[in-house]
Write a structure and sequence with these properties.
The chain has 312 residues and is α/β, with parallel strands linked by helices. The protein has a single domain, classed as Aldolase class I (TIM Barrel, Alpha-Beta Barrel). It contains 12 helices and 10 strands. Strand 8, helix 11 and strand 9 form a beta-alpha-beta unit. The longest helix has 31 residues.
Length: 312
């Protein structure tokens, strides 16, 4: 296993513990607001440190650190994650795992095996809004997504200038950016739609195949959403200390979404709302942070269903 990054000390990532944080590469989501762009797109890029070098570092921190936070990317993508966590536990450290919840089987096995002590699961949005919040193609499944810069660098530069010259249009353009990204990543631009329509007419034999593909993609989407829901249910069995958390983006989250999340996760103990920081590099440009008033309204909506809701 290659560790893409190491924060040697953190007082924030692991609640009430002094810890270090390791960053693993690769993710099956393409959230427009993701800060860790290099970990998502360049999962196999060289650099970082080896597992052996990390454990050499960790042994020198005995008595100084309480635990290790394992984040990404999506750590559950690592095939040898269980082995890695076992070594951390064997060295006498606690383990906190960050996850998007798309691998419930692996999550359950890690919990049952005593390999994690705390789990932070990202709740990207309400069930109804999950697709747009994690990226259309990643939600459907098979193809890896392109960077926004690969989709249209010239368009991005133009939109950036427009955002500066007319700030009132920024929110609308950000929504358009997300919509266009989802369309392009899913292969749904207008020209392709027209071409496929003509092909269906000219070659009816292909229509059945395309229909099967559409059903397959739908099943993948439903399966992924089901996985997220299952992971949430596993955590709510309270076999381990955990938290749910949502990074709140003005263009992606609404009061209706918060009400839906609250009903979905009613009975959960801890929920954290994290304000999106627009100064960071993200997959989609032009997204903005909610106001203090909006964050408080969202907190109040969730608090009607979940007892401990805080803003970070």
């Amino acid at each position: 296993m290659t560790i893409r990054g190491l924060q040697k000390t953190t007082l924030l990532d692991f609640p009430n513990k002094v810890a270090c944080t390791v960053f693993l590469g690769g993710c099956n989501f393409r959230c427009p607001f993701c800060y860790n762009v290099s970990l998502v797109y360049d999962a196999d890029k060289g650099g970082g440190i080896s597992a052996e070098d990390f454990f050499t570092f960790l042994k020198k921190r005995k008595g100084l650190l309480d635990g290790v936070c394992v984040t990404g990317g999506e750590p559950a993508l690592a095939e040898d994650l269980d082995i890695f966590l076992r070594r951390i536990k064997d060295d006498g450290f606690l383990v906190k795992l960050d996850t998007n919840g798309s691998f419930p089987g692996k999550l359950a096995a890690l919990i049952e095996g005593g390999l994690v002590d705390y789990v932070a699961m990202d709740i990207k949005n309400s069930i109804e809004s999950y697709k747009k919040t994690i990226g259309a193609e990643s939600f459907g499944g098979s193809k890896s997504l392109k960077k926004e810069s690969d989709i249209g660098a010239n368009q991005e530069n133009t939109e950036s200038r427009n955002n500066i010259s007319n700030p009132n249009e920024k929110t609308m353009e950000s929504r358009d950016n997300i919509s266009e990204l989802n369309k392009k990543e899913a292969g749904l631009d207008a020209n392709q739609e027209n071409t496929e329509s003509r092909n269906n007419i000219s070659n009816p034999n292909e229509k059945t195949t395309e229909s099967r593909d559409n059903v397959s993609e739908l099943n993948k989407k439903e399966t992924l959403l089901g996985a997220v829901q299952k992971s949430a249910a596993i955590l709510m069995e309270n076999k381990i200390d955990f938290e749910f958390r949502t990074t709140v983006v003005k263009e992606l989250h609404t009061e209706s979404d918060m009400e839906s999340i609250g009903k979905w996760l009613s009975g959960g103990e801890k929920y954290y709302l994290q304000r999106f920081k627009s100064e960071n590099e993200t997959i989609v440009k032009g997204l903005t942070s909610p106001s203090d008033a909006e964050m408080q309204r969202f907190r109040g909506i969730l608090a009607a269903h979940i007892p401990n809701v805080k803003i970070r």
